[in-house]
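Continuing the batch. This is chain 6 of the set; chains 1 through 5 are on the previous pages. Same settings as before, nothing changed between runs. Recording input and output for traceability.
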Amino acid sequence: MRDPATPLLVADRIVKRFPLPMPLAKRLLGRKPAAVGAVEDVSLTVARGETLGVIGESGCGKSTLGRVLLKLHAASSGTIQFDGQDITDLSERQFRPLRRRMQIVFQDPYASLNPRRTVGEIVGLPLRLHEGLGRRDAEERAAEFLPHVGLSARHLRRYPHQFSGGQRQRIGIARALILNPDFVVCDEPVSALDVSIQAQIIELLLRFKAESGLTYLFISHDLAVVGRVSNRIAVMYLGKLVEVGPRDAILRAPAHPYTRALLAAAPRLHPEEGRERIRLVGDLPSPITPPSGCRFHTRCPAAMPVCAQMAPAETEVAPGHRVSCHLHGVSGS
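Output for chain 6:
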């Protein structure tokens, strides 16, 4: 029996770089190809039964991080432990018994569903791959499971294009959860949906968590959504985690200027409510040539000379609340 207090997933100093194409002539001259640093030196833990929200601007590397944790992308360096087992270098054959315990719900419910397969085939396929069921038995199980996501057995013979966006996302959730996994990466699962449908999908995911004790890594650029579903929040900027802490601490007392800027930019139900106005200048820098020192210093309203010279060390500002910022201690790494 595993100790319930032991984290379900531990990632240590994860790096993921994607090499860029290079002309043959330059390769023959021995030049090294440039690389996109999508994830840089990220360490995190996910406790059993919790939801860790990962938030940041588009292009910050949060989706790549989720895929690396599931071994859909191989990490360039670093280690990943799942349920106490180091899975970093496992082959696909060795990893297969664990694959059913680690699933993903994708952002685009249409692009992630095979348009040539029926709902019964899509939802039943994981059962065929991991439990060896025949087509008929797998589709029977799928028919039994569909009501749990708000669909019915009469949808089995239909194709993805015959459903609305919210219904397609329910199909994707059914495909991910029919194997009763332990850990699910939700990669912006509601960002492509209408607001009213977003609420329904969020409630569906929360219900599964309450009933099955699921553990989620919930990726989003929407602070309101992350605040609704998460126990803890990790803030990501240009491949790095800049702040991690309990949900209430992040939302009420953010320690990093970037987190404060995200909160200031979030829509408010009552615009007349006071809130600090923070304006970020410029776009997210290129991950091919990231800024020196603190990666946020080129846009940070509180930047100091040291920020361009030295990467900030991680500092614990409160129990379980960590931030990488020179405002909280000028000690480099």
